[in-house]
Amino acid sequence: MNITLITVGKIKEKYLKEAIGEYSKRLSRYCKLNIVELQDEKTPENASEKDENIIKEKEGERILKHINDSMYVIALDLKGNMLTSNEFSDFIGNLGLRGNSNLAFVIGGSLGISREILNRANYKLCFSKMTFPHQLFRVILLEQIYRGFKIMKGEPYHK
């Protein structure tokens, strides 16, 4: 299985880079992982809704350049479906069984994901109604993907 994380914004914190590196290494037993970091747009402090939409559109254009027709796109969105870890594992496993072995997870910028990307997405996933820092969320997502593969394979890790 090929998994691509398409993310807006760069990771600067060493401890987050180390955690991403650790989960990337662990995942290498189960899938080919590619992480694409895209530049985020600076948001003015008093940005209007129109300005925010323009920013999301610019980031969306960058994201689209890394999505191809063969990808099953999963957008991380607050209005998406919430799954347990077991359900998430089943979801990933079933995608592979149905021939969708090229997955792209999209984490938008601080303003979210553009309408165009949400329309392109095959599935919208929500981890929580809470807001997480985008940099930290990469670690959380990678951990859940790793947990999902461990559950799928019946290997110890998940409790």
UniProtKB/TrEMBL annotation:
| Keywords, in A-Z order | Cytoplasm, Methyltransferase, rRNA processing, S-adenosyl-L-methionine, Transferase
EC nos: 2.1.1.177
**Which positions does UniProt annotate for S-adenosyl-L-methionine binding?**
L76, G108, F127, S128, K129, M130, T131, F132
Query: Which processes are annotated in GO (biological process)?
Result: methylation
Superkingdom of origin: Bacteria
Keyword Methyltransferase: yes or no? yes
Protein family: Belongs to the RNA methyltransferase RlmH family.
The free-text function statement in the UniProt record for this protein reads:
Specifically methylates the pseudouridine at position 1915 (m3Psi1915) in 23S rRNA.
Protein name, as recorded: Ribosomal RNA large subunit methyltransferase H
Q: Name the source organism.
A: Clostridium algifaecis
Q: Identify the coding gene.
A: rlmH
